[in-house]
Amino acid sequence: MASDQRTQRRDEEAAQRPDIQTSINNEVSTLGELFNALSEDFSYLIRKEVELARTETMEKVSKATRSVTLMVAAGLVGYAGFIAILIVIADLINAAIGVYWISWLIVGVAVLIAAAILYFAGRSALSNLTLTPEKTVETLRNDARWAKEQVQ
Q1: For residues 83 and 22, what is the distance between their CA atoms, to the nearest angstrom?
Q2: How far apart (Å, rounded) are the C-alpha atoms in residues 98 and 81?
Q3: How far apart are CA 134 and CA 47, in angstroms?
Q4: What's phi and psi for 149, nearest 5 deg?
Q5: Would the pTM of this model clear 0.70, i.e. be above it?
Q6: Which of the listed residues 12, 29, 64, 95 has the most CB atoms within 10 Å of its CB?
Q7: 2-16 and 134-151 helices cross at what angle (nearest 10)?
Q8: CA-to-CA distance for 87 and 89, rounded, in angstroms?
Q9: What is the DSSP string of 118-140?
């Protein structure tokens, strides 16, 4: 369905270009003129596909940037609360066992384990993100198929 919409949009854009309109109205008479028109149309198509790929890639990069920004903001806000909770936990452990440095060692090891888990979860989420403009690749395949059909 999206491919049909793109094909229709491409046809509408071609109808708006004066050089294509002229060649349609004047019926191309020689093989050389046909190839020239096809070459110009194909060049125009490639430029539009590159523009589409750039736009699609920038949209994905923008989404990734927003996601990372939100994660950083959450980390900064959570950091202050987390420090306060760690101090309270270390004081509670100190009250229970009576050795201050051991209570902080226990809290420190627990924090390092939690940090490692968060790090690997974040790295896994970023590795699943692809920046390939999939819609554009599909459209390019359709365009290549169309160009082959036009040549035959």
Answers
A1: 72
A2: 25
A3: 17
A4: -65, -35
A5: no
A6: 64
A7: 60
A8: 5
A9: HHHHHHHHHHT-----HHHHHHH
